[in-house]
Amino acid sequence: MNIIVCVKQVPGTNKVDIDPVTGTLKRSGVASKMNPYDLFALECALEIKEQTGGVVKTLSMGPPQAKAVLDESLWMGADEGLLLSDRAFGGADVLATSYCLSLGVGRLGEFDLIICGKQTTDGDTAQVGPELAERLGIEHATNVLRIDGYDEESVTVTIDLDGIEQTQKMLLPCLLTVEKDMNTPRLPSYLKKKSTDSEKISVASSADFPGADMTMLGLKGSPTQVERIFPPKSNTDKTALTGTTEELSGALYELLKESKFI
After folding, report:
1. Directed axis angle between helix 94-108 and helix 128-136, to 10°?
2. Measured at the alpha carbon of residue 212, what is the angle toward residues 111 and 2, in degrees to the nearest 5?
3. Dihedral sign for Cα atoms in the order 169, 170, 172, 174
4. Any idea what DSSP says for residue 180?
């Protein structure tokens, strides 16, 4: 089975600066990691590959440093990766992102299954996977709890419908977005890291898609208008209380009352 896994590099910290003009995260120079949900998607793909054979390819969109998550995917067992990187892709909302990823899927060639993490920790929209499926004109299932079986023509999955589990059979090709904790992602292999050929990861820019509609990429292709975005304020103020049990309970009561919690 030939599988494509969409992965994304996300900030490894919640202390990220915001571009005041575009309203997007400033990712350059920020400690980053692979989106945690994508680890479960990748592990799912690798388990299927081990049982059925085939190829696992990873796809990502981001700045040049996003290549690091594709490297990690190879060290975990993926066969090759493709990074979509261009300033023209920057500032994309979910609609523009899904269009760009659809171009990348076309570049990777034929596939049987696309697996995505349920959502990303920086956007939390859970919309890119379904929108990508719509772009490609294939069936999709979200909130997948487990994969129950598969053959050359179909895959059977159990999905979460707001607390109700439903099992459905889907014809290939199709797209799945998987929940966290559906498996235990493997660690990157040091031996694979030492032996992996860097040429297994290719980079494509807008110039590599001469037939693409540039008005559907990046900020130009993003109908979502961000009015204001800001990081939450952190409050590290502390108050130390000393005294007997009666004195502490009284002082705590006064603090809560002063703060209008009671």
Report:
1. 50
2. 5
3. negative
4. T
